[in-house]
Design brief:
single chain, 680 residues, alpha+beta, 13-stranded antiparallel beta sheet, six-stranded mixed beta sheet, Pept_M16_N, Peptidase_M16_C, MPP/UQCRC_Complex
Length: 680
């Protein structure tokens, strides 16, 4: 016991002495950069021009094959979206195997096999490499491009495109690309329904026959393999691949804007604004500024301790996160800083973005920030080396970009040797704070005037094209819009003659059929049930002064504003009862609803509950209801029922749904007799 006490005493004394000797007021000096042991790549070229790169790695009995096509970017024009189909089409069957057979054989050996328009990747255990290469080259040489697979991909792509049209982040990405690169540049063009529908199997085949050539390809092999074996299997599986002429393309290089410009997409249902501050930069892997730019970005907006994050989230509370990126590219790179912020602080957030960008260019970084950034990037670089694909990419980059053979071996030494002055010089070389594009996707009525302080505001649609110039009728009022709607559907008198209605709608979500049953009563009662396979999953009931919502048997009573919001949404044709219910109307101008000019009208109840509807300028019909909580509903396919035109198709877009839901009316009964049981 005495011995333990003595040891304890000396332990405390030693610790106290050590504490006294360490100056905790400054960061400890960085140690030497760890040595990176990346195997030397061995390179050889087949007679057909295929350059093969071997990186030996015997840590695991696995091998991977990465095939890369080094072609110029393509401007796809009226076939935009084509390259997104190529890889899936190639792996959807060959002249020797169906898609199911390929998948089964890949799964049987525990391998992976994938393809894109510029690559193919396969990985397996070492003992299965011949089987993997047999499958890989069958896909490479003998794709059958089945027509039914193209139609499946087309449908899938169109569904995703429809979803992205209402996704503020996707809209922001398209707008930023359009401004930075231009629509006539491969990086700025967008897929549309029309371009996707233009793509044929012949187009996919033509792309494959034009660009899948060995003389523009690299094959990176990573795994437990010696050079002799690599040469032997490369000859066996790839020597018969026929070379050919591959077209090259030149594009005008995007330049920085002459002065700061603001691009706005009006998304009036948004309660947040997606902001992006961006500009093109000239930066390629291997450039003098490339590695310094990694550190610069880490300090500005690379994580939760960066300047942007600490300012906009931790200090101001404008957002959940603010970040930046500095990308490199053979054609043209890009600087970007972005965040989603509350609508009311949009202009304040832009001020802070510009402040931090100006500050890092004008005043530079500190030694403390630089040391933290080095530690962070050194750690992530080391962890990345655990992946064979990282090693393959390093080897490919060395060959494709003509980098020094020891570029990645010396990466950490280079990174850790950079000084504050070098990082500051890179900031000035790459970023010009006075020539940025500021993009904003949000409620235009709330933010447009506020954004004008930063530069000329130009309005775009959700696909990044300049918004159509809309001209509203000079004498139009909210009352006239609603009157025109009632006249268009058959008249107010006929609309009010619909006292009750029961409706069944059928829809499908990700292959799962749904049934929606709704009952409307003009006296203010409403019920709705959503069923899957005959089982009621969700229901809601409004009984004038009470309401409830039930989800899978769990019921909740509605009260206060929840009940009032539900009540104003409970009418089949609420416009017919505006005067009787004491509703007020407000016109918020003419808006673009997916290419259709439409008047936006806010219908407000005395309780403060609101309906936000859009009415086609030409037909007068209601084409959209906007609801920040439940999503947007689009109305189409109007048909006459009891003398009144009613929409037979409702398309619902909501953050709660993975894809837009198209619901079609399959049964509609007007003025049916209702009982209390219908509202329970």
């Amino acid at each position: 016991m005495k011995k333990i006490a003595i040891l304890f005493f000396f332990g405390v004394l030693t610790a106290a002495t050590a504490w006294a000797q360490v100056d905790r007021s400054k960061l400890p000096d960085s140690g030497p950069a760890p040595e990176i042991n990346i195997g030397d790549a061995e390179v050889f070229t087949l007679e057909n021009g295929l350059k093969v790169i071997l990186v030996q790695n015997d840590k695991l009995p696995r091998v991977s094959f990465s095939l890369i096509l080094d072609r110029d970017p393509l401007l796809e024009g009226d076939k935009a979206g084509l390259t997104g189909f190529v890889g899936e089409m190639m792996t959807s069957g060959t002249t020797n195997r169906t898609k199911d057979q390929i998948d089964e054989e890949v799964d049987f050996i525990g391998a992976s096999l994938s393809a894109s328009s510029t690559s193919m990747f396969g990985s397996s255990l070492k003992k299965h490499q011949d089987k993997l290469l047999e499958l890989m080259t069958d896909v490479l040489y003998n794709p059958s491009f089945p027509e039914e697979e193209l139609e499946r991909l087309r449908k899938q792509t169109l569904t995703g495109l429809a979803t992205s049209k209402d996704n503020p982040n996707a809209i922001s990405s398209r707008l930023a690309a359009a401004l930075v690169y231009g629509k006539d540049h491969p990086y700025g063009e967008v897929e549309t329904e029309e371009t996707i529908k233009n793509i044929t199997v012949a187009d996919v085949k033509n792309y494959y026959e034009t660009f899948f050539k060995p003389n523009i390809a690299y094959l990176a092999i990573v795994g437990d393999m010696q050079l002799d074996e690599a040469k032997a299997i490369s000859e066996k599986y790839f020597a018969n691949w026929q070379p050919g002429d591959v077209p090259t393309f030149d594009y005008e290089k995007p330049e920085k804007t002459d002065m700061t410009m603001v691009g706005l997409v009006d998304r009036s249902s948004s309660v947040q604004t997606v902001i992006n501050v961006t500009q093109p930069i000239e930066l390629n892997i291997g450039d003098e500024d490339y590695i310094p730019s990694r550190l610069l970005n880490q300090i500005l907006g690379g994580g939760s301790s960066s300047r942007l994050f600490m300012n906009l989230r931790e200090d101001k509370g404008y957002t959940y996160g603010a970040y930046s990126s500095i990308s490199s590219d053979k054609l043209i790179g890009r600087f970007s800083a972005n965040a989603s912020v509350r609508t009311e602080v949009t202009d304040s957030a832009v001020v802070e973005f510009l402040h931090e960008i100006n500050k890092i260019v004008d005043e530079g970084v500190t030694e403390e920030e630089l040391q933290k950034a080095k530690a962070n990037l050194s750690g992530s670089f080391g962890r990345s080396l655990e992946s064979p694909s990282t090693i393959a990419n390093f080897a490919l980059n060395i060959e494709r970009y003509d980098l020094p053979k020891d570029y990645y071996k010396n990466y950490l030494q280079t990174l850790n040797g950079l000084s504050v002055d070098e990082i500051n010089a890179t900031a000035k070389n790459l970023i010009n704070p006075d020539k940025v594009y500021i993009t904003a996707v949000g409620n235009g009525d709330e933010i447009k005037e506020k954004l004008a302080q930063f530069g000329e505001v130009k309005v775009f649609d959700n696909m990044g094209f300049p918004a159509k110039e809309l001209t509203a009728d000079a004498d139009m009022t909210a009352e006239k819009v609603v009157a025109n709607f009632l006249q268009a559907i058959g008249g107010k008198e006929k609309a009010q003659a619909i006292k009750t209605a029961s409706m069944t709608m059928n829809a499908e979500i990700m292959g799962t059929p749904l049934a929606l049953d709704m009952v409307f009563d003009a006296s203010g009662r409403y019920s709705q049930k959503t069923s899957v396979g005959g089982n009621v999953m969700q229901s809601s009931v409004i009984n004038k002064d009470s309401g409830s919502v039930s989800v899978q048997g769990q019921s909740m009573q509605l009260s206060g504003q929840q009940l009032e919001d539900a009540k104003i949404n409970a009418y089949l044709i609420p416009e017919a009862w505006v005067e009787e219910l004491g509703y007020s109307l407000e016109l918020e101008g003419l808006k673009d609803v997916d290419g259709t000019p439409a008047y936006k009208v806010i219908i407000s109840a005395p309780s403060g509950a609101k309906l936000v509807n859009y009415y086609d300028q030409n037909t007068g019909l209601r084409i959209k209801n906007e609801n920040a909580a439940s999503g947007d509903t689009f109305y189409s396919d109007y048909q006459e029922k009891n003398g009144v035109l009613l929409p037979m198709t409702w398309t619902i877009k909501s953050a709660m749904l993975p894809v837009p839901m198209e619901a079609k009316v399959t049964n509609l009964n007007i003025n049916v007799e209702l009982t209390d049981e219908d509202f329970q």
